[in-house]
Amino acid sequence: MKARHTNLFASLLLWLASIAIIGLLVAFLGLILGRGIPYLKPSFFYGPDGVSGQLFNSFYLLVLSLVFSLPVGLGAGIYLAEYAPKNTFTDIIRLSTESLATVPSIVFGLFGMIVFVNKMGLGFTILGGSATLGLLNLPILVRVTEESLRTVPRSYREASLALGATMWQTLSKVILPTALPGLITGVTLVAGRALGETAILIFTAGMNVSRKLFDINPFAAGETLAVHLFAAKSNPLPGTNADQIADGTAALLIIMVIVFNLLLTLPGHWLQFRLSGKSRD
């Protein structure tokens, strides 16, 4: 009887904690979206001080940073989980990766400014900002990939290899489809972090934006929405309503993150379902 009451009490606490967290999230989203959505009009995007350039730069920098970090991060995670021998050198790599994942983003920003902006002479550019963002996301991708692959039961590997499949076939047809939800979660985390990053981009991509719509020049300055929000609140331009700009930009950032997560998560689950069905066949 005592164990039953303890179980009920613990369940009640967990339910209350979950409701409190959901309530805080709803209140947070309601406050930001309620204050900012009324300002999301065409003039907010295409007016004299519109944010269309910053909006494009946010996704452009995100895509370029993923181009830099995904192949290396996923490849390194796969190697550590499936191929790397268990020795001191591998342990040092894991420890270094975990240490890099805890480094503050401003440190990566200073590193990017020294290497890409000054030493390589790129200046404040989209290319330098995206490369630094790639370095920021790399340790997280490596760890998430390795841990996601390690959650796949060893019996899956043994069954596939016993049927005559090669290691690459086992990896591509069995292990990766099974671990796909975890991999999608990792990519979503680093993408959301990149969309909201400011410190790195202030030091590497700059606080200016091209007024040419959809400017894909990687050597142009690349102010993003997050940096624009920081500039609007910290150094408002004379004659502008900084509060309205900040509220609208914050709401737009929230909407971007939500839509991007849905666009990434839903197709990922569908692909995982298809691949799992093919692997069973």
Could you report the average pLDDT, rounded to the nearest whole number?
A: 84
Low confidence ranges: none
Tell me the span between the first and last alpha carbons.
48 Å
Radius of gyration: 22 Å
Give me the CATH fold name: MetI-like fold
Q: Can you put this structure into words, describing what you see?
A:
The chain is mostly helical. It has one domain: MetI-like (MetI-like fold). The protein has 11 helices and no strands. Helix 8 packs antiparallel against helix 11. The radius of gyration is 22 Å and the shape is globular.
Kindly list the characteristics that best describe this protein.
MetI-like fold, 78% helix, 281 residues, globular, 11 helices, mainly alpha
